[in-house]
Write a structure and sequence with these properties.
The chain has helices at about 10-30, 50-65, 70-100, 110-115, 125-130, 145-160, 165-185, 195-200, 205-220, 230-240, 250-265, 275-285, 285-305, 315-345. It has about 350 residues and is mainly α. Helix 3 packs parallel to helix 13 (about 285-305) and helix 3 packs antiparallel against helix 14. It is globular, with a radius of gyration of 21 Å. It starts with 7 loop residues before the first helix and ends with a helix. The mean pLDDT is about 90.
Amino acid sequence: MKNRNRIDVLDGFRAIAILAVVLDYYFYRWNDANFPYFGGDFFHYGYKGVMFFFMISGFVICYTLASKDLIIFLKKRFIRLFPSMLIASLATFVLIVTFDLQNIFPKSHHIRNLLTSITFLPPNLYNWLFGLKNHFNYLNYSYWSLWPEIQFYILVGSVYFFNEKNFKKNIIIVSILLITILNILQIINLHKITYVKKFFNLFNLIKFLPLFLSGAIFYMLYEKVKYKYLNIVLLLFLFALLNTNMNITDLIIYSAMFLLFSFLIFRPQAFWVFKNKILTQIGIASYYLYLILEYIGGVFIKNYVGYFYPHSYIVPILVIICMILISIMYTKTIEIKFHSFLKKYFLKNK
């Protein structure tokens, strides 16, 4: 699992995921009630793009896992995530304080939420540590999904470096065990007990672990490891687990996610469209785009949508184009320089 080349198709997947989230935020969540525009009813479920990101992470982390020890692995993850988080958080804070004159996002006006956000840790942890209630909040609520990612890195890294040889088997066993524990607690209603509920709200990876594990198992199929049919059975089990609420929309969305990964594994030649240069550029820049898009874009939509009414949809379209271009330019220039500097500092002689 060393010296991997980037898989263009996965960048195409990232582009689809981030565009789904963008459409949800700009055409549904921040659609203006006074100057409404079309799209809200169509893009309501775009937030499921975050779930697709979790599957992609499950695949990618297993695909790229190659370090001498857990600390180096976590350092590499820090180098990948922290610079963009710092810059995006600072940009969000400054722009919200400057342009959010209607106080649409009051929690983003407090510097304490800027400081907590760049640690990647959830606000409820800080509220618990300082004995305060609802004092700390996310600077940008989109940041909530980074905490499950961090937990997954720690889980995968620990399992991998505990026993590299049996990593694939062990990560499946550990994940299924954790998923089973959560489901048993839900069946017997213990998950509603206050301290149990707080525990799983804090360590919320388990709730999303079926998605991360699905991506990991798709990676194992991609690598043509042993027990192919057992892995397929596990995927069917995880798919069923994700659809226990019997929601037809969830069924369609999760089916699309699983089918995309299935075609990547078994019919990769059919994926030329996901190697499109525009899609791959958006996919490569998707991390920074995700960090800046919600509140900054929401403020600009709210501030200027009235000037274009009844053609209010022009504003979110312009904001989307600007956000994508800024993210691509940032990723190609600033992010690369930050990564190079941090690698020299944190990974010298490694």
